[in-house]
Amino acid sequence: MRMVNLILLSVLLLSSTCHFVSAFTDGLLPNGDFELGPKRSDMKGTEVINRHAIPKWEISGFVEYIKSGQKQGDMLLVVPEGAFAVRLGNEASIKQRVNVTKGMNYAITFCAARTCAQEEQLNISVSPEWGVLPMQTLYSSSGWDCYAWGFVALSSIAELVIHNPGVEEDPACGPLIDSVAMRVLVPPKRTSMNLLKNGNFEEGPFIFRNTTWGTLIPPNIEDAHSPLPGWMVESLKAVKYLDSNHFSVPSGKRAVELVAGKESAIAQVVRTTPGRRYALTFAVGDANDACAGSMVVEAFAGKDTLKVPYASKGKGGFKRAVLRFVATQTRTRIMFYSTFYSMRSDDFSSLCGPVIDDVRLLSIRRP
Ligand SMILES: *[C@@H]1O[C@H](CO)[C@@H](O)[C@H](O)[C@H]1NC(C)=O
Ligand SMILES: *[C@@H]1O[C@H](CO)[C@@H](O)[C@H](O)[C@H]1NC(C)=O
Ligand SMILES: *[C@@H]1O[C@H](CO)[C@@H](O)[C@H](O)[C@H]1NC(C)=O
């Protein structure tokens, strides 16, 4: 009897481990950098003419397979990971089915580059969720930006689609895509040390080791499926998610750079008790990315605000600030943005700004 139970148990354990192993957790998707390409016979010039020609992916519409160093007019195409990327022409899409764990939160990170002047956008989806990411604003001078997008798995298979909904006269216009990665997000919790979730920004989307421009958290990100758990980006422009491998961050391994002045804001709504006093503490600094000058971070807690000036030499460093307030509502909106726009002093074409990190909210007793 005991033996049978034991066998049953090990069968159960085995099947649950197998299930766990087959679900994707962290990193580049299979052939997510498109280094495995189509056979010559599946191509006409640079166009891929067979739906299943790119290993692990299914394509539709006008998709081109691009080699780094390839020329387009006067422009030399350079890809961030490895030597290959794809280009999504009019109404083109790429699709991959990924094994996931039902009910878990995920963040997709992918890098894209605009190649023509048009106002390009990409629709990224895992049915029934989707998000349209505008690509008008170039945040990095390399031309490549990496974007994050979050979803909750409603079944054990996620069908990820990246679609270019645009229709241009020139079918060779359309964004290049490279490096598609995914990461399980652990939903952060409030603790007795911090009423904010993920106040240190340690939980967030994948950042590519080989890219030096961080990952953008695009605008119109709501609470529930944010790729930066706990936080919302409601502004018109993205905020940039940084790691300590490539940038100076005030605390831990991750932080957020407010790259587009008042158009780049992050927020979180917290439960508060009207009449109670609170202290919102945070670090303001710079990422050591040649973003120099006078900066001001504005912090908001409901109707209370604090402006924190920071003189950046663009070489890393930070200071701490505290906003004390008395809550007037049962829910208080905590928000941060940068008062001014800044540009990197090394290339004058990349937006940059102050970094914030280690945001804590505590209830304080009256003395
Ligand atoms: C996804 O899951 C299916 C069925 O559970 C399995 O056959 C397949 O090998 C898995 N794919 C990957 C890439 O793990
Ligand atoms: C990252 O860059 C290094 C050095 O250039 C290279 O050897 C490595 O293959 C790259 N990794 C990826 C995932 O492209
Ligand atoms: C984005 O793609 C999804 C899935 O294909 C679709 O349901 C949605 O309508 C699309 N959104 C836009 C604005 O094109």
TrEMBL record:
An example Gene Ontology molecular-function term: enzyme regulator activity
Signal sequence interval, chain numbering: 1-23
Pfam families assigned to the protein according to its UniProt record, in alphabetical order: DUF642
Keywords for this protein: Cell wall, Glycoprotein, Secreted, Signal
Gene Ontology cellular component annotations, sorted alphabetically: plant-type cell wall
Keyword Secreted appears in the UniProt entry: yes
Family annotation (InterPro entries): DGR2-like_dom, Galactose-bd-like_sf, Pectin_Meth_Modulator
Domain named DUF642: residues: 27-183, 194-361
Location (main, coarse): secreted
Localization terms from the record: Secreted, Cell wall
Top-level taxon of the source organism: Eukaryota
Name this protein carries in UniProt: Protein DUF642 L-GALACTONO-1,4-LACTONE-RESPONSIVE GENE 2
